[in-house]
Structures are given as structure tokens and as C-alpha cells.
Amino acid sequence: MFTGLVEECGRVISIEVKGETARLTIGAKLVVEDVRLGDSIAINGCCLTVVEVASDRLTFEAVPETLRRTNLGSLSPNDPVNLERPLSANGRLGGHFVQGHIDGVGIVRDIRPEQNAVIYEIEVPAPLRRYFIEKGSVAVDGISLTVASVTPQTFTVWIIPHTRDVTNLSVRTVGSFVNLECDLLGKYMERLLQERFVNLPDGHQIK
Predict the structure, then answer these.
(1) Predicted model pTM
(2) Domain 8-84 identical in fold to domain 104-192
(3) pLDDT tens, position by position, for the chain (207 residues)?
(4) Residue-range domain boundaries for the chain
(5) Does residue 26 contact residue 43 with C-beta atoms inside 8 Å?
(6) Nearest 5°: CA angle at 33, between 29 and 37?
């Protein structure tokens, strides 16, 4: 479990794509301090398992499902990636509950300044649009953000200078692909209510 508060922006050292799998090595300073083999790290919001540890880098393996659902397969050496270690039991929850399970990839459709903020408008894959509500939560490339507005195809988020400076949003441009994780609560509620019927005393049913 993560919070969507990015700890550092690492850099891709290498990515070896073989068919539908990949081996990814990331250079980092902070998150390597207490990481052990087998630990989880969120890379652009995607939870991956550490398979090799060095003093200044971590290596991960991505399976086909990961590459199909995320933007990790399109990474190149020296690309910045958002990194976060899992939430500790005594840690502060400053963002929102983020599983590190990417639901799909969005496309940045517009970037525009508004006084001290930058507004990003992101197009959402059709199957995910029902999970977005105004003032709800979303993780964009692993960053916990508040949905400012929603249209039938897109949503917007307002980014403060600090967030833009310390994450890979600083290099995102119109047309960039970003990982999206929808709010956990909405997905579970939908599943629980799906195909359930309420039996009324007179024998009628409502869906």
C-alpha cells in the first residue's frame, strides 16, 4: 500500500524489453537506503518487486500484464520516474490509499498555467471514466492528486510548483502517456453492488 506522495524522482538506467516482458534498472538515492531483495517499490505508481539491489540502483522485472496496463514499456534510458516506498505501519497518510495497481493509461491533452498552478487535462480510457468524480482522488504516475473537474472524456488536476518540480510532471507534455489508478473505494463499491438485487416484501425485486 502506498500514499501517492512521491519520495524522489529516479532515472532509468536501462530497460531490456524481451517480447512482452521487461527488465528495468532504476537509479535512485533515497529509496535504496533501506530496500531489500523482494521489497516493493512504486515506479510511476506501478508496484514492482525488487530483484536486484545495488548502492545506487534497483532492478525490477515486469510481466506482460504490467506492460499492457502501464507506460513502463515505453520508458527509455535517462527518463525520470516517480518512486515511492510502501507506507509503513506508523507512517503518515498524507495522500490517499494507493495500491500500486494501475487501471490504465491516460493521455495528457492540455497543459495550461493558472497563476501559481499548472492545470493538466488528461483523457481517460472509456472503461475507467465512471470512476472519476469532482474532488475525488486519483493517482497520476503514482502522484496522489485531487480531481478538479470532469468532462465526458477527461479530467483536470491543478499542480502546485513543488509537485511539478519534484516529480516527472515537469517533463510531461501534450500527448504524454500517464499511468492512472482510480480511487480504491469506487472500484470496490461498484463490485459489491454489481448484479445485486434487493427483495421487497411484496416479492418484487429492484436492481
Answers:
(1) 0.90
(2) yes
(3) 899 999 999 999 999 998 899 999 999 999 999 999 999 999 999 999 999 999 999 999 999 999 999 999 999 999 999 999 998 877 777 778 899 999 999 999 999 999 999 999 999 999 999 999 999 999 999 999 999 999 999 999 999 999 999 999 999 999 999 999 998 888 888 877 776 655 545 555 555
(4) 8-84, 104-192
(5) yes
(6) 110
d(CA 82, CA 62) in angstroms, rounded, equals: 16
C-alpha 139/C-alpha 102 separation (Å) is 9
Q: Which residues of 40-76 are buried (b: 16+ CB within 10 A; e: fewer)?
A: bbbbbbbbbebeeeeeebbbbebeeebbebbbbbebe
Just give the CATH number of 8-84.
Answer: 2.40.30.20
CATH assignment of 104-192, among 2.40.30.20, 3.40.50.300, 1.20.272.10, 2.102.10.10: 2.40.30.20
